Structures are given as structure tokens and as C-alpha cells.
Amino acid sequence: MATESWHERSKTVQIDGRAVVDGKRVDAVSGAHFDCISPIDGRKLGEVARCTESDVDLAVHSARAAFEDGRWSGKAPVDRKRTLIRFADLMLAHKDELALLETLDMGKPIRYSRSVDVQLAQNCIRWYGEAIDKIYDEVAPTAQDSLALIQREPVGVVAAIIPWNYPMLMAAWKIGPALAAGNSLILKPSEKAPLTSLRLAELALEAGVPEGVFNVLPGYGDEAGKALGLHMDVDCIAFTGSTRVGKQILQMAGQSNLKRAWTELGGKSANIVCADCPDLDAAVAGAIGSIYFNQGESCNAPSRLFVEESIREAFLEKALAMIPKYAPGDPLDPDTVMGAIVDSIQMKTVLGYIEDGKASGARLLAGGQAARAETGGLYIEPTLFDGVDASMRIAREEIFGPVLSVLSFTDLDEAVRQANSTSYGLAAAVWTADMSRAIRTARRLRAGTVHVNQYDSDDITVPFGGYKQSGNGRDKSLHAFDKYTELKTTWIQI
């Protein structure tokens, strides 16, 4: 679809910001709402229900009733499978609508909303639907006079709180395994980007997910999110977002009913490029493409680039030549590869880190400024710092924006030590032609995912999550079922 077509369609898009509770679109109990503002040009897209504790109570009651009467939890796995596959099919049928909502809401380029976010989200729902009737329970090895069964059962009412940077995909990572396992779900999207979550709930209902099984409550974290975290009838809470809020979620779980609490949190990922890198052009493309993808608003973004000193100048020359490709553009233009920052708060945060980097003595080689101010939108140039010291804030703290910090090294052991020195442990990478060195380095890097001679390549079959203060949860793969199921042992005396 051409740029003009996306713009024309954006003028007529219908925004329904009401919550979804018990299979119905409803206003917040209080009648309160908040404005949904597009970072593309500052326009008001619509009004969204501001759900609070009263709305949470209604949604939890609906979800609990649905779980207890077995309208979903009691269905055969093959029946849940069919429904989830219909859900994925409907997502594909509405891919242009979903992509447009995603782009208008949080500013990412339409080319990626359509080709990446919708595709990966529907594939996630489909994959868990396909998986659920292929997972077997266990029979324990016992004496002849006993039979011991080990079975997975749904945990019950699941609350999922998701971030704004990949709203549709992060929702799918929770929806897929939680519903496939037979749970009832309450999804709380970020107030910064709630629109696709609300539309997904409608498509799920159309696919045949029973009323009450999938509820969506838009609202603020300190209101709706806190109420879910403290609710005594929520059995499990799955959170993706900042480490600061993740710690609060764990505290709420302990203060309430000891609900299962799973967190996938921030990152400050290290990307290590050795002098014997087998393809320097690929390493540069991987480093630049991964940090500026999604405007740098990715928890696993490789924001710390360690380059061996002997190739640093060559690397930087190639990197600086590539950066203009990522100049921010109109997110509704299919040729744009970097879009808008989600809101003014995040933009101020990113620009503040850039100023701090300059004041700390790092060399600003590219970017560092706001852009496209005439549009009324929120844009930042792709930014690159060289001469960064590991003690600087831009090398220690998660920025969540298009800012790359380059650190050089002469000793790989020292680079690994510095890579591990952060409180985070979400992802890392190493580029080297020596596979023995690559494997040894990967084993030493304290991160949930380590990439070798590439960055960010994976799929739904492998888990995603981190070490240390990057959280304790794992999304994707069959391991995600561990979050949303209980293990029950049944011991039978023969």
C-alpha cells in the first residue's frame, strides 16, 4: 500500500477505546478516560477507558467464573487448538487494520508493523494452538504396586501486563500460551499503546474464545496494574516492562496471595566484535540495524558495542556511512525504517541521556538531536557515541532509544568482564571466525540469549528472557507453559 493510501486510511480509522470485560465492550466503571495521542504528528486518535480497581474486580470475577465453569478450561486441547488457529487466521485477515493501529498508536514504521509485528504475533498464537494437543503428561517410574501421574493443569486466572514498544507481539507472547493451557486471561496494555490489544480481544471473541476468558483493561500502571498485582483472586501475573516496575510486581505478589509472578525486564545488551570477525560488513549491519530498529525501543537492543581496537576505525567508518539510512521518517511511508518515539516523556528521557553522554566526555559522532519537529511528532536522530567508558551512564543504564555507545577493547577477557558488569542480562553477541572462541565466550556471557555472528535472529521455538535484573520469566517456546500451568502429582496405590 502506498504512502498516500495509508494516510487516507488513517483519517477514517475507527478507534474504540472501551475495555473488554466478559465479552463486551464497556466504559470504565468511573466513566473516566484518557486521550490516545499519536506520536507521528501529535493528533488525538481517540479516548480510552481509564480502568481502575473497580474494573479489575469485575474482570477478575468474570475470568474466575469462566475458569470455574470450564467453558474454556474444560475444553479438550484439540478444541482450544481450533479456536486459537481461527484467531490467528482472523489476525491475518485484519493485518492492515492491526498494522495501522500499531503504527498510529506507538509510532513504528508501517512496513514493520505489517511485515514483522502482525506476522510474528499471529504466528505465536497459531504455534501455541498447534502445540497444545502435542504436549504429553508423564507417568513416573514407580514400583509395581503404584501408579504415579504427573499432569499439567492451568493455573487459573492470569493477569498479563505488557509494554508499549511491541504492543501486539508482547500481547501474543502472553495470550498464546496462557489461553492454550486453558487459563482465563486479563490483559493490561500500556496506556501509551493500548489499541491493538483491544482489537485482538474482539478478534478472539469472533474466533470462538468464550466470553469472560479474555478480558482487556486499558489504564495506568499505578491504578489498573497495581490492582491486578494486589488482587487476591489473580493466580498468576506475567509482566514485561522496566526493572523498576518488575520489582514492584514481585512485591505485590508477596503482599497479596503469593500469586505466581513472572517478569521479563530491561536490558543493556553487549555486542562484542572481534578483529577476526568473519564478515565486517555483516557485523556493522547487525549492530546498526539492531540498535536503531523500532527507534531503539527494544529491551534487547545491543546498545553497548565492544569493538576490538585494531578494527575500530574501519568499523566506525562503515557504521557512519550506514547511519543516514536510519534517519527518522514518516511512519506511514512504507520506505521509512525508523519512526517516532512513543511519547514526549520518553523523548525527554532519551535526549537527557544524550546530553549526559556529551557532558561525560563521550565523542558524539552522529545524531544527538530531535528531528522532524515541523510535523508535530516526536523523532530523534540515530545517535552514535565513540570513546565511551564503561562507567558512564550511557554505558550502564537502559536508554530505550536510538543511542549506540561504542567501547573499544584489546583483550577479549576484559570485554567479557565489562559486558557482564551490568545489572542486566537479557542478550549479548560475539562476532568471531573462531568457533571455539565463540562457544567459550557465549558460555561466559551472563545473558538469556547469546547471538554468534548475527544479532536478534531467533524464532518462536526458543525461549526469550534474561539473567539477573532482566527478570525471571521466559516467553516463547514450550518453556512458556511453565509460567501458566501447575504440576499435579496423582499417586495411585494398585
Q: Could you explain how this protein is built, in words?
A:
- By secondary structure, the chain is α/β, with parallel strands linked by helices.
- It has 16 helices and 23 strands.
- The protein has helices at residues 3-12, 53-68, 77-93, 95-106, 110-131, 167-180, 195-207, 221-230, 243-255, 280-292, 309-322, 344-359, 393-396, 412-419, 435-444, 481-484, and strands at residues 19-21, 24-26, 33-37, 44-49, 138-139, 146-154, 157-161, 184-188, 214-216, 236-240, 260-264, 270-273, 304-308, 363-366, 370-371, 379-380, 383-386, 403-409, 424-425, 427-431, 449-452, 467-468, 485-493.
- The strands form seven sheets. Strands 14-17-18-13-12-20-21 form a seven-stranded mixed sheet, sandwiched between helices.
- Strand 20, helix 15 (435-444) and strand 21 form a beta-alpha-beta unit.
- Helix 3 (77-93) packs antiparallel against helix 5 (110-131).
- The termini are far apart.
- The model has no long low-confidence stretch (mean pLDDT 98).
- Residues 32-489 form the Aldehyde dehydrogenase domain.
- This is Aldehyde dehydrogenase.
- Pfam families: Aldedh.
- Keywords: Oxidoreductase.
- InterPro entries: Ald_DH/histidinol_DH, Ald_DH_C, Ald_DH_CS_CYS, Ald_DH_N, Aldehyde_DH_dom.
